[in-house]
Write a structure and sequence with these properties.
With 398 residues, the chain is an alpha/beta fold. The chain is built from 13 helices and 14 strands. α1 crosses α11, α9 packs parallel to α11 and α10 packs antiparallel against α11.
Length: 398
């Protein structure tokens, strides 16, 4: 059959074990879901993900507290990434059959003077920090200075990102965005090519009470070619982006977009869209797992966010129509029990479910690229994609 509506939900950073090339990234031993399960000592309650087959993905080493389903009500597997990086942009682009094959620029020693001086000249503000830093720690350590001086806190991570933090009462959000848009023009190649410029506004009276706000905005590199989203839109299908999807693809291929204040706000948008009679693809990113808990190495908060999502997933499953297809995956890992504060190179879970599935409980195996997700969506709608991935549509229908 042809599914009239496909929902793809990306649990940002929810990896399910080290990738085959994890050692190359220094991430051997990373296991986001496995380590969260162990941290919770069997009390990680994810009944809806469990019945879809989350622990069936790794039956020899199920996630503690998440029993294997016999049989699973969905199909299950995992996906390995072929892109050169382990950033959200790389992962999402690859899902839509545009893998990032050339490593983007990273700055382990901070950004060069040529970039910093232009940022200062454009903004009329001094740049401070300019080195890899945890996003929460950098505002704790430098936020009070930024409030006094009006400087720009510029920092990076192990990914290809340039991040600018500023207190909303000192630098208005629109001014911060304007500076980030200018920064975007400085790193589009050929000398430096950066995946994302991220505006990181925060509020609070002092370093012990600073909180980053939902006014974060990602200014991503323009897609270097057409993605499956472009092909779907060109074919006249609805393409709905929820969360930072619109940012990641710079608006390309999106017919309607929703900004998320939080994971739960994102799920509110999902509930709303499920009531609509659209025909096409709804692409969802839930970023709190990554931004709020993964980078902060907070397994307790990460697990709580997973359990909160699982409850909302129950509503999604109840509201699905016979001709709906749900695909759940992730874009990379961010193991809260791992060393450092960066993303981790992991395989990602793959869960597929429709009320019309005739033979659920099938293993989809280990997919060789995230692009298999896009290839499946394209085959479903009868639209030619980039021919990078291999569709698993037949596997979930047989």
């Amino acid at each position: 059959m042809t599914y009239q509506r496909v929902f793809g939900i990306v649990l940002d950073s929810v990896g399910i074990g080290e990738a085959p090339d994890a050692l190359k990234f220094g991430d051997d031993g990373a296991d986001t879901l496995g380590h969260i399960g162990k941290w919770y000592q069997g009390k990680l309650a994810l009944p809806n993900l469990a019945k879809l087959g989350l622990s069936n993905i790794r039956p020899a080493d199920p996630i503690q507290g998440v029993p294997t389903a016999d049989p699973a009500m969905g199909c299950f597997g995992k996906m390995a990434e072929i892109s050169a990086g382990k950033d959200s942009m790389d992962g999402h682009w690859e899902m839509m059959e545009l893998p990032v094959k050339k490593p983007l620029s990273t700055f382990p020693n901070g950004f060069p003077d040529s970039i910093i001086q232009k940022l200062e000249a454009f903004s009329g503000r001094k740049v401070i920090v300019n080195k890899p830093y945890s996003g929460t720690e950098v505002i704790h350590d430098y936020g009070e200075q930024q409030m006094k001086t009006g400087d720009l806190i510029v920092y990076t991570s192990g990914d290809s990102v340039l991040q600018i933090a500023a207190h909303e009462d000192v630098i208005p959000v629109e001014e911060l965005y304007r500076t980030c848009r200018y920064a975007r023009t400085l790193v589009n190649g050929p000398e430096y090519t950066v995946g994302r410029i991220i505006a990181r506004p925060y509020v609070g009276p002092d370093k012990d009470h600073f909180v980053r706000t939902a006014n974060r905005h990602d200014f991503s590199l323009e897609p270097t070619g057409e993605t499956d989203l472009d092909h779907l839109k060109a074919a006249g299908l609805d393409v709905i982006g929820i969360g930072k999807i619109n940012d990641i693809f710079s608006g390309h291929g999106i017919t309607e977009g929703y900004h998320n204040e939080s994971n739960m706000d994102g799920m509110d948008h999902v509930d709303h869209v499920m009531k609509e009679d659209f025909h096409g693809f709804c692409f969802v990113n839930l970023v709190d797992f990554d931004a709020m808990y993964g980078h902060r190495r907070n397994p307790e908060g990460f697990g709580k966010a997973l359990m909160d999502f699982d409850q909302r997933l129950g509503t999604v499953l109840e509201n699905m129509r016979e001709d709906d297809l749900l695909l759940i995956t992730a874009d990379h890992g961010n193991d809260p029990c791992f060393r450092g504060t960066d993303h981790t190179r992991e395989v990602t879970p793959l869960l597929a479910y429709s009320p019309s599935m005739k033979h659920p409980g099938q293993s989809l195996g280990t997919r060789g690229t995230f692009a298999d997700l896009g290839a499946t969506i394209m085959e479903n709608f009868g639209v030619a994609g980039n021919q990078v991935g291999t569709s698993f549509l037949a596997a979930i229908e047989n």
